[in-house]
Amino acid sequence: MDKKEYHVIKKEIFNQEVYSFEFDKNPVNIVDIGAHIGLSVIYFKEQFPNSRIIAFEPNPCNFELLEKNVFNNNLRNVECIQKAISSKKEEKHLYYNTSNTSTSSFQRNAWNGMEKEQEKVLVECITLNDFVNMDVDLLKMDIEGLEEEVILSSREALQCVSNIVFEFHCFNIKSFDRIVRFLKSCNFYIAEISKPKIGEMCILKGSKYPI
Question: Which domains does the chain have, with CATH numbers?
Answer without folding.
Answer: 3-207 (3.40.50.150)
